[in-house]
Design a protein that fits this description.
Elements lengths: L2 H15 L6 H11 L4 H16 L5 E3 L2 E7 L8 E12 L3 E2 L4 E7 L5 E2 L5 E5 L4 E2 L2 E14 L4 E2 L4
Antiparallel strand pairs: 1-2, 2-3, 3-9, 4-8, 4-10, 5-7, 5-9, 6-9
Length: about 160
């Protein structure tokens, strides 16, 4: 899987959710259709592993966290950008979600938690902020950001 194929994979996913409010209902829908055990979850996990192995995904590193923006917002992705972060029992940089955030915990260690949630999808509403934290192992974290909007801030 190369970057172009990955963007197409994301485009198919975002076509289902474009225009949907970023809320708990969306998280439930994503987990039902694309959660752990589903073909699409397996495809996303395999694509991320391949992208990392090929060096175009998670190509940056800071303070023990590998990360990178792999898809910029475009019409093909319905205005969403994609960042993928490789985290192992660590807290990431505090940030604010002006337009919200859709997040997928692709747990590499069985039982790895992202912000206390097991593998699968979560949604952070517009205006929320946090320091994403992976505990109990290692996870790849895939972020869908409407219009690519994210503001790195200091933790309160």
């Amino acid at each position: 899987m190369d970057a172009t194929e990955f963007r197409g994979l994301i485009g198919r996913l975002t076509s289902e959710i474009a225009g949907h409010p970023l809320n708990a209902e969306l998280a439930a829908l994503l987990n039902e259709r694309h959660g752990p055990g589903s073909p699409s979850y397996s495809e996303l996990l395999a694509a991320c592993r391949a992208g990392i192995a090929d060096g175009w995904m998670c190509s940056r590193e800071n303070a023990g966290i590998r990360y990178g923006r792999v898809v910029k917002p475009s019409d093909e992705t319905h205005g969403f950008s994609v960042d993928v972060v490789d985290m192992d029992n660590i807290a990431g940089a505090h940030h604010h979600h002006p337009n919200g955030e859709i997040v997928l915990n692709l747990a590499l260690t069985p039982g790895a938690l992202l912000d206390g949630r097991s593998a699968g999808w979560g949604v952070n509403a517009p205006g929320t902020a946090h320091s994403p934290t992976v505990t109990q192992g290692r996870a790849l974290v895939l972020y869908l950001l409407p219009q690519g909007a994210i503001e790195f801030t200091k933790a309160p």
